[in-house]
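Appendix B, record 7
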Amino acid sequence: MSDMAIKRAVPGPKPARNLLEQLRLMSQFDHDTLGMIQRGFDTYGDVWLIEAGKMQQFMFRHPDHYHEILVTQASSFHKDLNYKDRKKGLGRFMGNGLVTSDGEFWKRQRKLIQPAFHARRIEAYTQAMVDITLGQINDWRDGAVIEVSEQMMEATLKVVTRSVFDVDITQATRTIGDAMTTFQNMSNNQNQMIPSWVPTPLELKTRQALREMDDIVYGLIRARRASAHDRGDLLSMLLEARDDDGSGMTDEQIRDELVTLFLAGHETTANSLNWTWYLLAQHPEVEARLHTELDTVLAGRAPSLQDLKQLTYTEMIIKESMRLYPAVYAIGRQATEDVEIGGYRVPKGASVGIFSFVTHRDPRWWGADAGQFKPERFATEQEAQIKKYAYLPFSTGPRICIGNSFAMMEAHLMLATIAQRWRLQLQPGQAVEPEPLITLRPKGGLHMIATARTPQAVAKAAPQAEPLPL
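C-alpha cells (predicted):
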C-alpha cells in the first residue's frame, strides 16, 4: 500500500468546531440516528469521518473493514469511551465487566467466565427457559392487547436471573429491569452532554437505580459466599472460578460481571424477539410456515432441547430478524495506536464505528431485496454463501459475544413456546419505529393483540401494517 493511498483524505461533513455546532450535530443524531448514519454512507461511501471538536469518529460499513478492526488488527483497538467511561458510559453501570474491560484484565476475566457458557452448562437451562416462558404467557387472554416488549423483557430477565442466581426474586427482577431501562435512557447524546454532577430528574433516578441494583446484587453475592453451596448456576461458577495463581474474583468484579450479564443477557434477546413478533405480524406466509413446523415437530407439547435441531425454520426466522433489526446495531472501538484500515490512516485516539444495521441491509451482500424479511436466506446452503463478516449479530473475533449460544437457544425456545400457542398482531394505527439506544428497541413499546391459535385463526391470518421503510 503506497503512502498516498494510506494518507488519502477521508470524506465527511464539515467539522463541528464550536460548541453550538457540536450541540446541533448531537441533537440531529439523537432525533434520527439510523437515518443520519445511512445517509452518510449513501453520500460518502464505505468510510466517512465525523469531526466534532477534538473528537474524530470514523464510520465503517464494509465487511472487509470489520475483519481488519475486529480480527486481524483487534489488538490495535480498545473499547471506546461510550463503553468505558465511569461517569457517562456503560462503565458507570457495568463497571469493569467483560463488555467494558480491556487488555490483560479482560483476558483474565474472559478465561475465568468462559466455562460458565460451556454447552453442557447452557443446556441445563433449557427447561427453565421453557417454564419461565410458559409462566409469562399464562395470564394472556384471547383478544387482549399485550405490551409485548415489556413481556419479552420481563421473561428474558427472569431467565437470566434463574440462570445466574438459581433463585426466584420476582420483585428484584422488576427493580433490575427498571434500572436497565433507566440506563438505556441515559445513553442518548443530549443526556451525555449534561455532567453527572448536575441533579437532573433522570440523573437522580439513575443514582437511585444504581443503589437499588447494587443492594440486590451484593446481597446475593454475600449470601452465596456465606452458604458456600454450589447451586450449579453462573453465580456459583463465578465464585468458584480461579486464576492460574489460585486467586478468585473480588465481590466488585463479580458484581460487574453479573450486571453485565443482566444487561447484555436479556436486553439483546428480548429485542430480537420483539422485532421477530413485529415482522411475523406483517408476513402471514412466514408465520403460517412457522406454525406448520411447530405443529408437526411438537405435536402440541412444549419444546425441549432435543426439538431444536428439527425446528430449523424457527431458527431461520430468528436469524433473519436479527439481520434486519440487530439488537447490537453498532460497535465502537478506539485506536490505541496509529493504524491503517482499508487504506485509510486512523490516528491513535480516534474512534471507529462499525454499523451492522447498515451492513445487514446492504444490497451488495444481501441482494436487491435486502430490505425484505426472508428467513430462507438462512437455509443451510444459502447461509453458506453469505459474505464473511456481512452478518454480525454477536460481533466477531476475540471479543465475540460470550453468551451467543445461550442467547440463540433462549430465543429459539421462547419463539417456539409462544408461537405454538399464540398469534400476535399489531394494534391498528400503531407506528413502530426503532429506537437506537444501548440496544435497538421498538420506540414506545410494541402493543399487539394476542389471539389464541386455532387452525381457523391461522387460515385467516392477514398483515396488519406495511413494513417499516428504512
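Remarks on this record: Residues 1-6, 456-470 have pLDDT under 50 and may be disordered. The chain has 22 helices and twelve strands.
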